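**Fold in tokens:**
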Amino acid sequence: MGSILLLLALGTVCYLFWLQRKQDERAIVVARQLCQQQQLQLLDCGRSGHSFRKINGRLRFITQYQVDFSGDGESRYQAELLLSGMRLAAFNLPAYRIN
């Protein structure tokens, strides 16, 4: 009985790790698309944390990503990308200098 629970726990951890990697890859694709739409250069995209937030009146589990970009090729700015599952919840873009 104990070995079955151990295998179940190990399988759950592996599944959650795989799911997080899939979401990280989705965040990079979304960040690249959003930067192209705004004519920005994507420099970096990395996960910065998890939280619960209200979106459209519903409490959601959100994964936060920090997106580094440049508008002029010299400066570096940080935006915040929020994903709820595999869907874009928000993209908070700060003011930046353009070329």
User: Anything to note?
Assistant: The mean pLDDT is 93. The helical segments are 2-37. The longest strand covers residues 41-55. Strands lie at 41-55, 58-70, 77-84, 87-92.
